[in-house]
Structure formats: structure tokens, C-alpha cells
Design a protein that fits this description.
Length: 390
């Protein structure tokens, strides 16, 4: 998950302390958070904290885990997508549809909830499939391209198995959408998508998850699919050189020198993400290396902002210190600080997330980084929270 790397230098610095109650919760998982992340201005301040409540599913016993596409389609005009799903499987559920809110003032205020038509209509057909929207990009022509994960819920409430991923285009700021079309011919999941150098680049994991969502065979590969016509058609450019056994989740971004970088999660080692880089737009890739994350990372989301790089997600799923929403900082995108917890786990699983640079279309105002994440309020039923970085 990435935007073009931004170079605006932050002008405000705060010292990140800790809310007393949440420090008590965190005491068994970490020492004091004296890291470079502590120099950020984070709103709400003094994380870990409750965040800004964006979607309150607790009043209707609903859940919003997976599907947090974000896009700024014009100066200060944003769409923030989120799932509206059932409480089945303790809330760890894909039984539902996508909705979104619109902001016309850079995220200060938001519209009422709006259903995403294709997703809602697919759910209402009761055909055992639902559509979650994890990523969106904006093209140079001003079109929004939205990517759908097509979930098979015919036998369980979970997202998997996966069908062929789809994409859809809006030329009017999300008011109307084109008929969704396949991104590729292979069943699987588009984990990330970026817009660089006049083309869309999508990171697809060719694994239909009929067995499980992580890689188990040589046929399970990460692929780069690209579109040079604004999302109308896609072609496969390359297969990335990852060992995919026990791997899943991926993130794609751009380093300061313009190289692409792709990360994948290793469920057997949550402290280290595999990564590879490309200097030619994803045609060829470097030898795979690893980046270390002291407090673990799962479902990683990578972005460059204000001269630094950020990685956020869940602090792992296994062992001590797992389950919290965490944010890491790096000067180069490969060597990471000790991280700062944004929200401590209260109950079940959450911390599926995404982020976007807001303000990049206006040179007269400073950029801000919006982070959106799910947080479990009961069992694994989740609300949706926001944080801002300046």
C-alpha cells in the first residue's frame, strides 16, 4: 500500500507519551516506546489510544474487518471504504458488503454511509459470493480504479476461498462505476495496487485459498499485473522471486530512488518480512532479503510520507505481544525502528489497515497521512478507527 514518495518535511514535533491505562495494558509486551516514531505528530496524541471512531459497528452488532480502500480523487476530496459484515464466526466475517464515506474537506468531516453498489448487489443475489474492496488508485486522467477481492462464503463466513479478482473504474468521483472486469485469469487476491509512471501496478497472490491463504505449493506465486490504459486492461509483467511457503499478505511501494519494493509476510517468522526491489518498473527483481520488525508485523501496509517510510499493521498473530495495531518508521524503507503501538488489543482479532497521503494535490497546504484500521470491540467484531500523522 503506497503513494508516490513525498518529500515535504514535517514542521511540528511532539513527544509521544503513553496514556496511563494503556501503558498498563502494554507493560507485558514492550518497554518504553522511545523510537524515531516518537518525533511524529499523531492525532489523537499520546498513543496507544482509542483512535478516532470512524465507523461504529457495535450499535448494530456488525463487523468491518477486511476492505479499507482509500483514495483522494481531487484536492481534499476523499473516499474511505469499509466493510459492513455480519457477526458470524465471532465477527471474523465476509458475509456482507462494502460501504464508503465521502469527505470534501480533507477528512475533517465525512458524509453519511453510502453502499458500494456492486458489492451490495452481489451480496443480495445470495449466490455464495461477496466483494470486498481493499485497494484503490487514482490515474493521471482523474479516474478511480477500485480492486475487489471476490470471496466464497458458500460454506463458511470467512473470506476464502477466493475467486478471480476484479477491478472497476469511476470517472465521476465514485458516483458511478463501470462493470467490474477480471484483473487476471488466475484466482487469488490483489494485496496492493499503486499508480506510478503513468501505469497501475497490482500485486496479486495467485492462490485461490481453497486450502489456506498462505502459500503451500510452487504454483502459489506473487505476480505483478500492470495497466497502461487506466485500468481498462491488465497484463502480467512478472513473477516475483519470493519463496511463498507459509507466506501471504503483501505490500507494494516506491523507494526514494524510484525503485519498486514489495514485501510479503512470513507466518513462521513474524519479526521479519521478505522483500525484493525492482529498478525497471517490476520487469526484473532483486534477490530476496528481509527487514526486521522488533514487535512483529502482520498484514503489512507500506507507504512513503514526508521524507520517511512507514509500515503499519497487526503486531503479529502468535505469541506474546501479538494483536495490537502498530506503526513503524524507517529512513530508507528497509531498516525499521522499534515501532509505536497505536491501539492495544481489547478482545479478538483486528488491525487490518490501509493509509493514504492527503493533500498531495495542493502545494499550498502540508500533506497529512490518514491511517484507517479495524479494531475488535467484542469477540472479533470490529469497528473502524482513524489516526492522522503530520
Amino acid at each position: 500500500m503506497s503513494q508516490l514518495f513525498a518529500t515535504y518535511s514535517p514542521t511540528w514535533f511532539v513527544r509521544i507519551g503513553a496514556v496511563a491505562l494503556l501503558v498498563t495494558l502494554a507493560a507485558n509486551t514492550t518497554s518504553a516506546q522511545s523510537t524515531p516514531t516518537s518525533a511524529l505528530k499523531i492525532t489523537p496524541p499520546n498513543p496507544p489510544n482509542a483512535g478516532i471512531l470512524f465507523i461504529n459497528h457495535s450499535t448494530t452488532n456488525r463487523s468491518g474487518h477486511l476492505g479499507h480502500a482509500l483514495v483522494e480523487y481531487d484536492n481534499g476530496k476523499l473516499l474511505a471504504f469499509y466493510p459492513n459484515c455480519s457477526g458470524d464466526n465471532g465477527g471474523h466475517s465476509a458475509v456482507g458488503w462494502m460501504e464508503f464515506k465521502r469527505s470534501l474537506d480533507g477528512g475533517r468531516t465525512w458524509s453519511n454511509r453510502l453502499p458500494l453498489p456492486f458489492s451490495k448487489q452481489l451480496f443480495k443475489k445470495v449466490e455464495g459470493r461477496t466483494a470486498m474492496a481493499e485497494k484503490a488508485v487514482l490515474t493521471d486522467q482523474g479516474d478511480i480504479v477500485l480492486f475487489y477481492l471476490i470471496c466464497d462464503i458458500s460454506t463458511t463466513a470467512l473470506w476464502q476461498p477466493y475467486w478471480t479478482p476484479l477491478s472497476s473504474i469511476s470517472s465521476d468521483g465514485g458516483k458511478t462505476w463501470s462493470e467490474p472486469k477480471p484483473v487476471c485469469e488466475t484466482r487469488g487476491r490483489v494485496y496492493d495496487a499503486v499508480y506510478h509512471d503513468g501505469e497501475i501496478r497490482a500485486l496479486h497472490f495467485a492462490n485461490d485459498a481453497t486450502g489456506t491463504w498462505w502459500g503451500t505449493t510452487d504454483e502459489h506465486i506473487f505476480e505483478l499485473h500492470v495497466s497502461s490504459d487506466g485500468g481498462k486492461t491488465f497484463t502480467r509483467r512478472s513473477a516475483l522471486p519470493f519463496n511463498t511457503k507459509d507466506r501471504g499478505y503483501g505490500s507494494l511501494g516506491r523507494l526514494a530512488n524510484g525503485d519498486l519494493i514489495a514485501f510479503v509476510y512470513n507466518r513462521t517468522n513474524e519479526h521479519d518480512l521478505d522483500y525484493t526491489t525492482s529498478a525497471d518498473g517490476g520487469t526484473t527483481w532483486s534477490t530476496v532479503k528481509t527487514s526486521h520488525f522488533r514487535r512483529k508485523i502482520r498484514n503489512p501496509q507500506f507507504i512513503g510520507f514526508n521524507g520517511k517510510f512507514y509500515m503499519h499493521g497487526r503486531s503479529g498473530a502468535y505469541g506474546e505481544g501479538s494483536g495490537h495495531m502498530i506503526l513503524y518508521t524507517s529512513p530508507d524503507g528497509m531498516k525499521w525502528d522499534d515501532g509505536v503501538y497505536l491501539r492495544m488489543q481489547d478482545t479478538g482479532t483486528g488491525a487490518y489497515s490501509n493509509s493514504i497521503i492527503v493533500g498531495s494535490k495542493n502545494d499550498q497546504t502540508p500533506n497529512r497521512l490518514l491511517i484507517q484500521a479495524s479494531h475488535a470491540y467484542e469477540d472479533s467484531k470490529t469497528n473502524v478507527l482513524h489516526w492522522w500523522l503530520d
